[in-house]
Every structure is written in C-alpha cells, then in structure tokens.
C-alpha cells in the first residue's frame, strides 16, 4: 500500500480510462465514505455526491460535459456538489458529536447560532462555503481513489445548469466539479512538473 506521501505525489489527472473495468456499488460507496472524512466548517458536511455509472446516465452527463470521452469511459463520474443550506442542516449534522459527548450542549448551540448568523442572510458566503467544502471532499476522494490503485480527474468543463436539470439537483445543490474515477487506460500523461516550492512559499 502506498504511503500518504507517495499517494499525493503519484496522483495524476487522468484522461484515459479502461472502459471495460467497472466498480461495484460497494467500492463506490467506500470511496465516498473516505471522501466524507474531509473537513468542513463547523463539521457541517455540506456536500452531496451523485455517482454517474449507468450507460444511460453517462450519455446524459457526456452531453452536459461537452462530449469529453472520459465521462463515458471512466467507471464512475461523481457530480460533487456543495450545499447552500449548512445553517439549516447543521443541528442534525452535529447531533452525533453531541450524543457522543465530543461537543458540550453549550458548544453545540453556540456553533448552530454562529452558523445562522454567518450564513442566513449572506448568499455569497453560503456559496463560498459550498465550494470550499465540495473542493476539500473532491480532493479527498481523488486521494482515496489513488490509494486504491485507481485514477481520477477533476473536471470544471461542464454546463452546471444542464447537470442540475438532468440529474434533478435541488436548488441548494451547487455542482462544483465532476470527478471521474476508474482503472487507467493506456494513454495517460506522466505526472506533470510542479512549480518550485521557493516560487510559491514565503515566510514572515
């Protein structure tokens, strides 16, 4: 098994998948269970995943993704959504932490109140939080896939309105990105070089 460091450094954004190799429902569910270990503000877990795996659903998504073949060839493409309603769903999301005495009643109520004040009347902040949470979950999903010997690719090349309509997303679901996952095909590029650390890091 790869170490976390090897997993991070070996991950590529794949364009080539083996269309003959599938993933079971259990394998797909395990990937999402790992993805949901990502952090989120207040532990609100304001994300949703749609696993597009049937041939009929892939055809619909292929159209909304401007014909990018990897959507059809990958074992599954996840529509990764961030949710705008954290302040409405936070109490339920935090209840297990309260029940397990991780959070006190005062802290539980304090976080719920803080989220209400921060998000209730601030649509742009709700959207920012949805994008942040979905992006963290998507990266965790891709690392989970890499750790299982799969490849993945984040995709921003899609029509969000068409995706929302075709897959019956709710008004509070923001389709942040697509993530293709599957077994590698023969034509993937090697890892592309990164900028030197000295170019992107400063110390103060």
Automatic annotation (TrEMBL):
InterPro entries: Nitroreductase, Nitroreductase-like
Pfam families per the UniProt record, alphabetical: Nitroreductase
Gene3D superfamilies reported in the protein's UniProt record: NADH Oxidase (3.40.109.10)
Nitroreductase domain: residues covered: 8-183
Tree of life domain: Bacteria
Keywords: Oxidoreductase
Family of this protein: Belongs to the nitroreductase family.
Name by which UniProt lists this protein: Nitroreductase family protein
């Amino acid at each position: 098994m790869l170490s976390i460091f090897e997993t991070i450094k070996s991950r590529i954004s794949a364009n080539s998948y083996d269309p003959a190799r599938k993933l079971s429902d259990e394998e797909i569910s395990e990937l999402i269970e790992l993805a949901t270990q990502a952090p989120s503000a207040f532990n609100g877990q304001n994300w949703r995943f749609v696993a597009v795996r049937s041939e009929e659903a892939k055809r619909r998504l292929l159209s909304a993704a401007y014909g990018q073949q990897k959507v059809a060839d990958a074992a599954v493409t996840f529509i990764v959504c961030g949710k705008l309603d954290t302040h409405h769903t936070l109490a339920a999301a935090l209840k297990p932490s309260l029940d397990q005495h991780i959070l006190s009643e005062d802290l539980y109520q304090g976080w719920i109140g803080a989220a209400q004040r921060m998000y209730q009347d601030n649509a742009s902040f709700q959207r920012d939080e949805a994008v942040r949470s979905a992006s963290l979950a998507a990266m965790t999903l891709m690392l989970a896939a890499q750790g299982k010997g799969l490849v993945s690719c984040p995709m921003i090349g899609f029509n969000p309105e068409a995706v929302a309509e075709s897959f019956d997303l709710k008004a509070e679901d923001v389709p942040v990105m697509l993530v293709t996952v599957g077994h590698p095909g023969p034509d993937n590029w090697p890892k592309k070089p990164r900028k030197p650390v000295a170019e992107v890091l400063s110390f103060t």
